[in-house]
Amino acid sequence: QAQLVESGGGVVQPGGSLRLSCAASGFPFSLYFMKWYRQAPGKERELVAAISSGGGTTTYADSVQGRFTISRDNVLNRVYLQMSSLRAEDTAVYYCNALRGMGNYWGQGTQVTVSS
Fold first, then answer.
1. What is d(CA 24, CA 83) in angstroms, rounded to the nearest whole number?
2. Burial class for 54, CB neighbours closer than 10 Å (0-12, 13-18, 19+)
3. How does the average pLDDT of the chain come out, rounded?
4. Distance of alpha carbon 14 from alpha carbon 28, whole angstroms
């Protein structure tokens, strides 16, 4: 059974940093395109960052470009989101997503709150 478990969320002051982690199991992780999404209260879920199966290609939302970095470890079956220079508007629940063909899996999310 495919499973994604996010961790690393919390409360951080503006300008601070957090590193999110997503542990994958139950499917061939190294073959999957991985993404991080976020959803703020009252807003639609939005794509934050994505990384190809081999890790060679990454894409970012304009709002996080230069501040967030997505990476993956295909041995440990994990994907990460390093977030720096955090802003109040980054406050959201962050979700990990695995996508390949008919396979589309989601984690339960981890809350990130940026507040002074």
1. 20
2. exposed
3. 97
4. 37
Which tokens in the block code for residue 43?
A: 């807003």
Using one digit for the tens of pLDDT, what is the confidence trace for 2-42? 999 999 999 999 999 999 999 999 999 999 999 999 999 99
b/e per residue 81-101 (b: at least 16 CB within 10 A):
bebeebeeebbbbbbbbbeee
Q: How far is Cα 73 from Cα 90, in angstroms, rounded to an integer? A: 25
- What's the Rg (C-alpha) of the chain? 13
Q: How far apart are CA 100 and CA 28, in angstroms?
A: 10
Please report the pLDDT score of residue 102 as a whole number.
Answer: 86
